[in-house]
Every structure is written in structure tokens, then in C-alpha cells.
Amino acid sequence: MGRRERSEMVNMSILMMMMMMSSTLMTMVDSSRLVQRASDDSEILRRHLLANGLGVTPPMGWNSWNHFSCNINETVIKETADALVTTGLSKLGYNYVNIDDCWAELSRDKKGKLVPKKSTFPSGIKALADYVHSKGLKLGIYSDAGYLTCSKTMPGSLGYEEKDAKTFAEWGIDYLKYDNCNTDGTRPTVRYPVMTRALMKSGRPIFHSLCEWGDMHPALWGAPLGNSWRTTNDINDSWLSMISIADMNEIYAAHARPGGWNDPDMLEVGNGGMTKDEYIVHFSIWAISKAPLLLGCDIRNMTKETMEIVANKEVIALNQDPHGVQAKKARMEGDIQVWAGPLSGYRVALLLLNRGPKRSDITAFWDDIEIPPNSIVEARDLWKLVDGFQSRMLMNNGLALTPQMGWNSWNHFQCNINETLIKQTADAMVSSGLSARGYKYINIDDCWGELKRDAQGNMVAKASTFPSGMKALSDYVHSKGLKLGIYSDAGTFTCSQTMPGSLGHEEQDAKTFASWGIDYLKYDNCFNTGTSPKERYPKMSKALMNSGRSIFFSLCEWGQDDPATWAGDIGNSWRTTGDIQDNWKSMTTIADQNDRWASYARPGSWNDPDMLEVGNGGMTREEYRSHFSIWALAKAPLLIGCDLRSMDKVTFELLSNKDVIAVNQDKLGIQGKKVKKDGDLEVWAGPLSKKRVAVILWNRGSLPANITAGWEDIGLHSSAIVNARDLWAHSTHSGVKKQLSALVEPHACKMYTLTRRKA
Ligand SMILES: *[C@@H]1O[C@H](CO)[C@@H](O)[C@H](O)[C@H]1NC(C)=O
Ligand SMILES: *[C@@H]1O[C@H](CO)[C@@H](O)[C@H](O)[C@H]1NC(C)=O
Ligand SMILES: *[C@@H]1O[C@H](CO)[C@@H](O)[C@H](O)[C@H]1NC(C)=O
Ligand SMILES: *[C@@H]1O[C@H](CO)[C@@H](O)[C@H](O)[C@H]1NC(C)=O
Ligand SMILES: *[C@@H]1O[C@H](CO)[C@@H](O)[C@H](O)[C@H]1NC(C)=O
């Protein structure tokens, strides 16, 4: 694999050198003054034939082929034009409605003119162009530099170039895709200029899209002839096709510029043959490659997911950047690639691409992407917002800069709660000293409310257990310097079925919570009527933002719809797993499940592997130490789940470890993860602020074992010398080189913070 990748690189650099030689040649011919010889290749290189002022940025729109092939008619074209407007896509720049092959009768009329197919385009193309123009859009059409088009169901324009260009202009056509089937065997450099000249003489500016399939390297000669030129064969709706076409097109990057673009074929996004991530790769590469953005799906029936991809304004802006420079591969290592290209305003577009089957860290160095070495940049992630299309930026409540810390009633008490318990817990939080270590939230879970809302539809605190009401309770909790959290459900009932959920009452309930002085909402997923969480959770997010109070939003969707990929814009944390149980197997399984989503955590929004079980009795001291250490390193919420009023000394020692808490609350906010696994022996690590590194050596087996973290495993340079602070033994090893090793007892862990020593 590695070797193949390298040989590919070698081939490519040879190819690029060849191209550079040819383009030098082209410049030379360009500046010489040869006498014109008709149909000589050199003629096309001599003059810029195509000065239509079009294609200043890559064309955007739609084309019928990828989804419909020959199954087209005037209804589908009109409905597509309608849909481009109603979806808002035309506003984003998608303006061309392009008819591909199969729109005409096989025979020309008596005067030799092309005739729209009577059975499918009965009103004719002129009427269709009028319709499309009335929508503020442009109409494109298709022909072929041969005797027949590729479908062989209609004539090509070879020998009829002037006549056909005039016909297109008469009809009000704005774009011509000119294909390469059934030719007379002459070179494209002979056949294509004839149509270019014909279009220029037609009296209407018509975008000229050369579809020569890249056979004769049109990037080298297409610029004077066309506004874009295909660099490759037809795309098909698969990852393999898309990614190989992206590679082929990249070779010609240097030849793209405003007015003339490389064309790696139309988009397949929305046609169903690739995953969402793959389509995001497809759209991203096309955008930064300054490729035409011609949608190829059924616009009348797009999924929300497709819409989210192709309507990403910021990605479109890269494609339409006035600088007009095509991005290229800046670095390749196996399946890992860095693509980059300059943008206007001293900005750089950067794509980190993982083509392999496994998650992977990718680094782009300033050298690779031509940023001066000491530059400090602001990096904007353009896809972070994908799923937040409708809900983007909803949740900017300024909370959760570090993971939330506090207590929740469920793990120990389930439904056996009341206001006395909550108050006593608040008291214990303060008197134990835990609040001074950062534990601030006192969170009431399920079962706090009456089953029925009041006459105004408001939720009501349960009279038998919370007789003083929630406002009085929050006043009490606040008086202790703490915050009060509450619980509801994105369904018709909460999970206990003893109280109503907030589905359909989001605004009202959020206002109620705000009026009570609530600081935190855990929002569960029971009795959810089967609607997508991506519809139900943003509603509450919005309602909380409208409530007039800053309320932490904790999504408890159990990880079912991969909330890490979409909840970041609507919540401060999201559960990545089902409920934890107070045993080793549950805790370790959940730790692994949560680890998969590490890269999505960041200040303001965190992965949540559920609340702590430390102190509830189902695990040993060392197991609880592992539980707490891994949760801290993984930037998980530290929500205590035991009875604080009667916590023992061991529990307090675990929960109150300042150094471990400091790892969790580190302001860099990067989730540590499993970096090495050797059977039951694992190394978990993650970066901290001040260039420090947090490391856990974790023995998940049943025998004592030595575990080693090599510097390469944990992101340290091989020559680094560190001081290693053992966070549980409260001791420091100075001057540690190359690796850190320790003997670790079964189900136990060692946890360290490594600080680099100045050389
Ligand atoms: C027009 O084409 C669409 C898409 O192929 C098809 O669903 C529809 O039945 C066609 N309509 C007519 C009137 O032929
Ligand atoms: C799609 O393209 C890939 C790569 O060129 C090729 O391997 C595959 O056979 C094609 N699939 C179809 C259905 O044409
Ligand atoms: C719309 O798309 C859905 C799937 O995305 C499909 O099941 C349905 O048949 C399509 N409807 C039409 C009219 O094409
Ligand atoms: C409140 O809840 C606690 C914990 O379940 C329980 O021990 C106590 O008896 C309850 N108090 C009242 C007054 O119900
Ligand atoms: C751990 O390493 C030490 C030092 O190399 C060695 O003496 C000891 O036997 C090892 N223990 C285990 C359980 O492998």
C-alpha cells in the first residue's frame, strides 16, 4: 500500500513536469506571430477565441444527467427550476439549469435545425428558456462535437456548429455542454474551436463547457476555447470513482483561473451511492478545487442531509472566492492527505482528508500550506455546522468552557427524591469541601413533577415531595453558592412515566424553568414518538436560548443518532452511550464507546459518558479510581452519583483529587483518548495547556502488569525530557526520557501529568 502510494506520487510528479514543459511551449507559441493556417492546432493557441466574460467564478447549478440520464422532459426541468428557487439554492448561487443528452429528435428539420423532442419537450426549448429565465435562472443545453450525441438518440453538432449555435442563441440558451462521442476521428483541438467561434458569433454570451473527458489534456489547450473543460471520464456515484477523479483533476490545478476551470464532472451528492461523510468529502474537494458545482441529484426531492451539504455557504464561498486559485495536495502519507490553496484576503483553504478505513489524527504544518512559520491563525471549521443547518449557533450561552461538575440524584436515588434530600446534598457539597474543588451543579433527575400540567399547561413540582416548589429550592441552592439543575424529556412522558415530557411544550417549559431560577437542564429521550432527535432537541435548545436565562443544556439522547456529529451547535454536552451501571463491565464498555467521539469534544460542548458511580459500592477502590481518572482525562462531565451526605473517606479522596480534577478542567479542552492497546493493557493520553500531557496507564486485566507509554504514543518528541507528576501517589519523577513505565495492579491505573523540562 505504502509503496503504491509512493509510486503514484512519482508518476504524478513526472506528469506535472511534463505539463510544465508543455505549458512553456504554449507560452512560446502564444507570443510568436505565426501566419494563420486554417484547422492547424497552433491556431487555437494563438488567439483567445472565447472572450464571453463568463465563468469569472466556477459555474453553479444543476444538470440532468447524473440522476435522470435520458429520462427527462420539460416538466422535470421546470420543476427543478422551481425547486432551485423554493429551496433557497438559487440564492446561494446555483443558477444554471442544464439539460443534458436526449432532448432532441434524431432528425434535423428541413432547414437542418435541431428539433426538440416532441414527446418530451412539446412546448419547445424557447418556451422552457422563458420559464427558467422568469425564475431568475439560466438554461443550459447539450450537444456533441461528433455526428451523434453519446446516447445516439439525437444528432451532434459536427459540421453544424454555426447553425446550432444560432439556434441556441435564438432560444435564449446560456450554457452549452459539448460532448465528445461519435466523432470523425479528428482531434478535439480541431473540432472544439469551431464551436467556440460559432458561439462567439451567435450574438449571445453562452458559457462553453468542453466535455472532452481529459483524454488530450484539455487543461493545456482549453483555456482559449472554453470556460471549463472536463479533465476526467464520467463520474459515477461511488467513493472509488469520486476519489480517483479528484486525484486526476488535481494534476491540472495550475491551469485553472477565472474564466477557465478544470471540470472533474458533476456532483453526485444526494444520489445515494456514498455515505454522508463521503459526500462531504466530495463536495469539499470540488469546492476547493474550483470545480463547477453542478448538482446532479433530484432537486425536487432532496433530503435535509443533502441540503445541509450542498447549501453550506462557507464551503460555497471557497469555491466562488474571487482569487480563483485551485487548491492542491500539500502532503500525502498513506491514506492521510492535506489539501490547501490560497484564498483572497490572505486566507488559506485547508482540507484534512482521511481516505482510509480508520479514524486518524491529521496534522497540517504551516510549511505544507505556505503559511509563514511563526504565524498565528484563526482556524474556522466549515463543517462543524453541518447538522446544525437549521439550528446553527443556537446554543451560544457561554457555558461549559470546561466540563460541568456537580451531582445528580439518579444513580443513587432514582425516583426516591424530595426537597429535603436536595437541600441536604447542597449542604454536604459545601461542608465536605467538594464545592470548593469545582462541583457546583445540584441536579434533580426524573420524578420531580406531577403527572398533570396545571390549567395553564405549566409543569408543576410534585406536592408530596417538593411542597415548597422549585423556586424556593433554587433560592436555597443559590444561597449556598451552587446551581440547580432539573430534568425533562424530549417526548410525551419522562422515562419514569410519572411526569410529562416537554415535547410540544418546549417554549413554555423553558420559560417555567427560567422563572424558577434553574441553571441546567438534562433532557432525556423516552416516549419520543419516533421523530428524529435532530428535530426534537434543537427545539428545546432554541427555547432555552429564548428563555431569558443562561441554562446549561445537557442532551441525553443515549448516543443513538451519533449526537457528537450534530449536537455541538445546540447543546453543552450530549450523552454518547446508554445508562451506566455500577459495575466494572458497564463502566469500561462505556469508556470505550465514548472514546470513539473524542475529536468532537471542545470547550462549550462535551461528550457525556454518563454520571459517576464512584461511592455507590458496586466497584472496588481501584476500579473507581480508574473510572474517575478516565472520566477526567476524557473531559467527561464530573457529576457525582452517590449519596454525598454519607460518603466515606475513600470516596471523598477519589472525588476531591485536585490534580485529577485539573486535568478535566484544563482550559485547552481537548479530550484525551486511548492511544495504545496491548491486550488488556492500555495507554490513554491527551494534551493539556502549557504543552503538558496527561497520561493514564490502565490495566484492565486480572494480573499485575508493567505498562509503558512511549513518547511517540503520547505525542511527545523522542528527545523530550519531562517531569512526570503521579497524580494519585502525589509524587514527581524528574528527568524522564523516552518512555514512562509502571507496574499497575489489576483493574487499576496510574495517572500522570508530564511537563516538559526546558532544554
Ligand atoms: C418526466 O420525467 C420524470 C423524471 O424522469 C418522470 O418521473 C415523469 O413521469 C415524466 N413526465 C412525463 C409527463 O413524461
Ligand atoms: C465506478 O467507477 C469506479 C472507478 O472508476 C469503477 O471501479 C466502478 O466499476 C464504476 N462503477 C460503475 C457502476 O460503473
Ligand atoms: C423522494 O426520495 C425518497 C428517498 O429519499 C424516495 O423514497 C421517494 O420515492 C422519492 N420521491 C420521488 C417522488 O421521487
Ligand atoms: C427524602 O428522600 C430521602 C432519600 O430517598 C429519604 O431517605 C427520606 O426519607 C425522604 N424524606 C421525606 C420527608 O420523604
Ligand atoms: C515489571 O518490570 C520489572 C522491571 O523490569 C520486573 O522486575 C518485574 O518482574 C515486572 N513485573 C511484571 C509483573 O511483569
3D architecture notes:
This is Alpha-galactosidase. This protein has 759 residues and is an alpha/beta fold. The protein has 20 helices and 27 strands. The protein has an eight-stranded parallel beta sheet with strand order 7-6-5-4-3-2-1-8. Strands 18-17-16-15-14-13-12-19 form an eight-stranded parallel beta sheet. The radius of gyration is 32 Å and the shape is elongated. The two termini are 39 Å apart. The model is unreliable at 1-47 and 385-394 (pLDDT under 50). The structure holds 2-acetamido-2-deoxy-beta-D-glucopyranose (NAG) (5 copies). Residues 236, 238, 240-241, 244 line the site of one 2-acetamido-2-deoxy-beta-D-glucopyranose.
Task: Outline the fold blueprint.
Blueprint: H1 2-31, H2 41-46, E1 60-63, H3 65-68, H4 74-86, E2 96-98, H5 124-134, E3 138-144, H6 161-171, E4 175-179, H7 188-201, E5 207-210, E6 228-230, H8 239-250, E7 261-263, H9 276-288, E8 293-295, H10 304-310, H11 313-319, E9 328-333, E10 336-343, E11 347-354, E12 405-408, H12 410-413, H13 419-431, E13 441-443, H14 469-479, E14 483-489, H15 506-516, E15 520-524, H16 533-545, E16 552-555, E17 573-575, H17 584-595, E18 606-608, H18 621-633, E19 638-640, H19 649-655, H20 658-664, E20 673-678, E21 681-687, E22 693-699, E23 705-710, E24 721-726, E25 731-737, E26 739-744, E27 749-756
Parallel strand pairs: 1-2, 1-8, 2-3, 3-4, 4-5, 5-6, 6-7, 12-13, 12-19, 13-14, 14-15, 15-16, 16-17, 17-18
Antiparallel strand pairs: 9-10, 10-11, 20-21, 21-22, 22-27, 23-26, 24-25, 24-27
The protein binds 2-acetamido-2-deoxy-beta-D-glucopyranose (5 copies).
